[in-house]
Structure formats: structure tokens, C-alpha cells
Amino acid sequence: MNSGTAALHLALAALEIGPGDEVIVPTMSFASDAEVVIRLGARPVLADCDPRTLNLTAAAAEAALTRRTRAILPVHYAGLPCEMSALRRLARRHRLAVVEDAAHAFPARHDSRPIGSEGSAVAFSFYASKNLTTGEGGMVTTPHRRLAERMRLLRLHGLSASAWQRRERGAGYDILLPGYKYNLGDLAAAIGRAQLAKAARLHATRERLAQRYQQALGQLPEIELPPFVAAPDHAWHLYVIQLRLERLRCGRDEFAAALRRRGIETSVHYRPLHMHSYYRRAFGYRPADLSCAHRAYQRILSLPFFAGLRPDAARRVITAVAATCAEFRR
Ligand SMILES: *Cc1c(COP(=O)(O)O)cnc(C)c1O
After folding, report:
1. Which of 156, 218, 314, 318 has its CA 20 to 30 A from that of 117?
2. Residues labelled as active-site residues
3. Mean pLDDT of the chain
4. How far is the CA of 168 from the centre of ligand 1 (A)?
5. Residue nearest to atom 14 of ligand 1 (CA)
6. How far is the CA of 4 from the centre of ligand 1 (A)?
7. How far is Cα 318 from Cα 95, in angstroms, rounded to an integer?
8. CATH fold group of domain 4-196
9. Regarding the domain delimited by 199-266+303-328, which CATH topology (the fold level of the hierarchy) does it fall under?
10. Is 138 near ligand 1, meaning CB less than 6 Å away?
């Protein structure tokens, strides 16, 4: 696919999600997950997260169930797999599709199986910032042959034959369905092949960096560390700390501004979807409606985290975080 968003859109379209249907979407995520549901005429029902992992829980998904629910869309936040056994049990019990957003989760594993090997369909993103990149790009995996065929068809205008097949067979094409223009370009695919050869090394580098942060920042009582799972389970796409605000005389934004003054840029993943104007306006959400995500949003901060971050730069991050904790300590 040409993006992770396209992968999500196509998976739901191939499952024939449409008007009158509901899809359970974690509020602690990116715009794509709810937007593609809306673009198919269905309704995203936003669900709360676990306060520690920030992942959708089976309990939160169950609370969001209605008669109209057709699918659950778990996002493996930061690269840590969701509790898939419980989510799959829930889906089986209610005959729901499970479409995973694995934009953060290459190459994570769950129960020693790669994320992407199970479920209805699993969407990956190869956007510039992701663990494996093609500049812009994406992928969808499915163990279901019929769904795969349908997604292949929809990916390129619903044409009965690819350009390659037409060349081989010398035949024309037939338009079987109104599809999309969602194919990955050849240039992007070439970048992806080179990235794939480096993927294991880049992942090991991310894991070492996570370990280094974990050890150093674990000394600071003002900071709650992300849950640590040894490789190869965690893809380590993001490193998100949670500030213990009760121990600090500042809020998250002030903490981030102080880090910026020390030369360290941070980011926030994410402002929960239900707190954005559109979702408040269209569905009447109030911030406290999904209270774990709302509370987590006040405390989360994504530290600089990428495979090219050298040990001396990581030390600078750690020193700046420690100095900022000292500055605002109660
Ligand atoms: C990046 C991302 C997407 C979208 O991927 P694109 O390739 O940019 O379309 C979707 N969901 C999550 C959680 C992401 O981080």
C-alpha cells in the first residue's frame, strides 16, 4: 500500500464495513484509525486505554460494544503488543473482525508469533518516522485468502489483472469493482528492500537505547517508565515516559518547554482522539468521558528515540531530563 492509512482503509473496506456499522477504536491513537471508519460511512466508537501500557484493553473494548459493532481496531501503542488473546476471545464471542493497527509494531511479537501473522487483517505503516520506512508506504497482512484477494483487487482500481499480468498474458483488464489507487510505488518498494536488510540491526539498536533510558531514568522518582518487555516482543517505536505530576511543580507542557531550553525536543503521542474538536463536535465527547486516556494525556512525553541516536546524545537527553526533574521537584 502507499500508506498505513490506506492499509487500514482497505482492510475495513474489504471487510465491507459501512453505514450502520460501528468499529471500536482506541482513543489513544492517531487520526487515521477513526478517520477511515468515518470515510466508509461507519461510526468509530472510541475506547479508553490501560493507564500503564496506554493500549486498548479487552475490558474497554467490551464496554464499547453495541449491537452494531462489526470490528475492533487495536493499536499496538509505541510497539508494545496489545493483550491480543483477550481481545481475540472477545471478538470470537461477538463475531467481530479484528483489524490491528501495527504502524508502531514492526517487528513486534505476541506469544512468540510476529504481529501481522494473525487476526482479520493487520496494517503497517512505512512512513518516514516509522521503524521501517519507504518514505511513504504501508502494508496489510491477512491469513485469509479471500480477504487478501479482495484487498489486492481494491488496491488498484478493482482491475482484474495487474500491469505485470497483462504483459505476460497479453490481455486487457476488466474493472470488477470501484477500487482505490493505493499501491506502493516501485521506488518506495526499492527503499523498503534495503531497509528490510537492516531491520534486525535497527531493532536491536532501539532495544539497547530503551535499556539505556530505562536504567538511567529509573533512578528518577518523578518519572514513570514505559513497560519494558525484552526483545523480540516490543518493537520499541516510541519511548514514552509518564510524569508523576504529584511530585512535580509543573505540568507536562512546562516540563517539555524546560527540556527544549536544554536543547532537547520532545513530542506527545497522542492527544486522545476524543479530545479533538471534530470528535467532540460530531459525537459529543467530553475529555473526562475516557478518563484513563484523558489523565495519561496530561502526563505523557515522548523522548528523542531513533536508531541513529548515539550513546552520547542519549546521555544528553538523560542529563536534561534529570536536571528538569530537579528544577521542578516538590
Ligand atoms: C503513522 C501511523 C498511522 C498512519 O500511517 P501513514 O503511513 O502515515 O498513513 C496510523 N496509525 C498510527 C498509530 C501511526 O503511528
Report:
1. 156
2. 130
3. 96
4. 35
5. 103
6. 5
7. 47
8. Aspartate Aminotransferase; domain 2 (3.40.640)
9. Aspartate Aminotransferase, domain 1 (3.90.1150)
10. yes
